[in-house]
Structures are given as structure tokens and as C-alpha cells.
Amino acid sequence: MNQHTQRLYQQMKKRLDKVVPDAELRLKAEIAAEILKLKKEKNALILAHNYMEPALFYSIPDYCGDSLDLSRRAAAAGKPIIVFCGVRFMAETAKILSPASKVLLPSPRAGCSLAESISADDLRALRRRYPDIPVITYVNTYADVKALSDVCCTSGNAAAVVESLHAPRVFLLPDAFLAANIAAETGRRIVYLDRDGRLPDHLPESPNGIIIGWHGKCEVHERFTTSDIENARRQFPDVAVLAHPECPPEVVAASDFSGGTNAMIRYVDSSPARRFLLLTECAMADNVLAAHPDREMIRICSLRCPHMNEITLEDTLEALRREQYEIQVPQPIADPARLALEKMIAIG
Ligand code: SF4
Q1: Hey, what domains does the chain have and what are their CATH numbers?
Q2: What's the CA gap between 154 and 184, in Å, rounded?
Q3: Is the link from the previous residue into 174 a cis peptide, with omega within 30 of 0?
Q4: How far, CA to CA in Å, does 145 sit from each of 119, 138, 148, 287?
Q5: Which of 51, 70, 185, 270 qualifies as a cystine partner to 281, CB 3.0-4.6 A?
Q6: How far is ligand 1, taken at its centre, from the CA of residue 255, in Å?
Q7: Under a CB-based contact definition with an 8 Å cutoff, are residues 81 and 45 in contact?
Q8: DSSP class of residue 202?
Q9: pLDDT tens string for the chain (348 positions)?
Q10: Is the Cβ atom of 218 under 6 angstroms away from ligand 1?
């Protein structure tokens, strides 16, 4: 190990001593040191989602955060190369907001069950059938779906986006649970399209309006249950339970807090609680624990995101070396998708 790698290893060890075994950390520090060298030579920017493994999260990124936060960073950076350590829809968003940069995704297999649950053809058919109902799409969609939307939203600003439209009915696609959770938060009724993309014949009365959802689910968050919360509370009565809004509504209702990944981090940062159950991708609990070694994180690591787990330090090194796998978004898709994203960013 040369001096530079040794220094990096020491920095990583200080942070990750409780989280990553030492032998693994030594190996990862070697790879991270190579990435950092290449990053400098190529004047690249590395962005990492909060779900990245701890050794990656705490070594190579210029910025870590949620998908929106990272895309804003991408747009502002003006770098020739951006390596996005996250999944494809996030890298696409970075490319749309930063079209002059070469955006690289370290693994071509890093997809997302939510993004794959709705296609541009699905949305085109919906718009033809219900032209008067505005369409909000979650950022966890591919660029061609964003391009057909009125506005995008994140889990953090979905309620504000719904309210900004002042419409009696809105589509909030594609996450069925996010739509239900936002309906509960904004006092609206939730109604679902059937599998053929049709509304029920009779819509319920709702003075505050109706949110119409699709059937998409996050393959990680849909599997958390209220039993997970009951078990944790039985063993640790003081535990603070944080649920991502992609979890089922009954799980969100049984939690102490619900919010996107950045909101969860802020909650832990400012909470007097000592113990937390984070109902989201397990790597995030490791990353939060590394930042708060005095707290305890209860993890349910049997539920992992296979797509986020595709992104490794090894693949990130190869991506930078070979400048692979480049994200392309054709201009006729990128331009309207950018409008939908910019409207979302303006709402905050
Ligand atoms: S955690 Fe869920 S929403 Fe996020 S990338 Fe994985 S499958 Fe998609």
C-alpha cells in the first residue's frame, strides 16, 4: 500500500471501523485510491446515492444524497464526465439536466422495479383516454415516461407537487403505495387504475380531490410489514421507526416518521433517540451508523435492492477507465422530460 492509499485507508477506517471488516476495507481502499486518481486525471464528478455500500459511499464521491439532490449537483457541476453511482433512471435524470456531460452508469444492469412498471406506451394510452387529468410522475421512471408527464415529483415533494396543481383529480404514477401515502397526507381519496389502465365507472366523492394511482411497487419497500415494526418495538420499546413513503400505507402509519432518504438522514441527525429502525435499503442504515457511531441501527438486511447492489467500487473503476456505460437520452425525449423535471425543481 503506497502512502496515498494508506492515508485513504486510515480515513475510511476511522469512519467505517464498526461497519466494514478490516480485510475488506484494505481491499476497497486500494480500489478507491485508483478511482480517485483517475477521477482527477479525467476531471470527472462522482455522485453516489444514499443506498451505495459504505466503502464506496465514504471514499470516492464528490457528493452523496438522494436522486434529486444528485441531479441538481450534476446540473451545477459543469464537468465533462459524471459517474453516477446509482440506478439507470437517476443517471438519465443527470444526463437530462446536464446534457453536455458524458454521464456514466457503472453497471448496465442497475434498473428499478418501479421504473420498469410503466412504459411510455402505457402513459400515452392513459393521456389519450383521460386528456384532462394532469400527470405527475415519480422521478423513479425512465426518461420517455417523464417526457409525457406534466410534472415530476420525488418522495420528498410529492405532496407539494399534488397541491400545486389545484386539480380535482391527478394521476400520481407509478408507485401505488407512494400515491396512497400522499393521498393520506394531503387529505385526498386514493383510486387505482385497473390493469388495462382504466378508471372505475364511479369515482368516490372527495371534497379535497382524488389521487389516481398505478400498480407499480418498489420490490424492496413493498416487503416491509407492520410485524417488522411490532417485533422491533417489542424488543426495543425506545426505537424510532422511519419508513420510506414507498412502503405500504399501514407500515407508514405505524412508523414514527416517513420521508425520503435525505429526510430520514436529517431526522436521525436531529433526533434525541438512540435507536432507529430504518425501513429502507439496508446499506443506508450502515451509512447512517458510520456517521453516528453512538447510535444503534436495527436493520432488516434480508431485503436488499438488487439494482443498487449492482454498483460496486470495482465496476466504478472500470466505468471510469473505459468510460462505460454511457447514458444517452435522445433530444426529443430529453427536452420535454427536462421541462417536467424543472417544474418539479421549481416547486422545491
Ligand atoms: S430501492 Fe426500489 S425504488 Fe429504489 S432503485 Fe431499488 S427497486 Fe427501485
Answers
A1: 3-110+308-322 (3.40.50.10800), 115-217 (3.40.50.10800), 225-298 (3.40.50.10800)
A2: 16
A3: yes
A4: 6, 10, 5, 31
A5: 51
A6: 20
A7: yes
A8: S
A9: 899 999 999 999 999 998 999 999 999 999 999 999 999 999 999 999 999 999 999 999 999 999 878 988 988 988 999 999 999 999 999 999 999 999 999 999 999 999 999 999 999 999 999 999 999 999 999 999 999 999 999 998 999 999 999 999 999 999 999 999 999 999 999 999 999 999 999 999 899 999 999 999 999 999 999 999 999 999 999 999 999 999 999 999 999 999 999 999 999 999 999 999 999 999 999 999 999 999 999 988 888 999 999 999 999 999 999 999 999 999 999 999 999 999 999 987
A10: yes
User: Which pTM value belongs to this model?
Assistant: 0.96
Q: Exposure string (b/e) for 257-279, b if CB count within 10 Å is 16 or more?
A: bbbbbbbbbebbeeeeeebbbbb
Residue with cell 452508469: 105
User: Is omega for the bond preceding 51 within 30 degrees of 0, making it cis?
Assistant: no
Asked whether the beta carbons of 141 and 216 are under 8 A apart, the reply is no
Is any atom of ligand 1 closer than 6 Å to the C-beta of 308? Answer: yes
Mutate to test the pocket of ligand 1, among 66, 107, 112 (most ligand atoms within 8 A of CB): 112
**Which residues are registered as beta bridge partners of 257?**
242
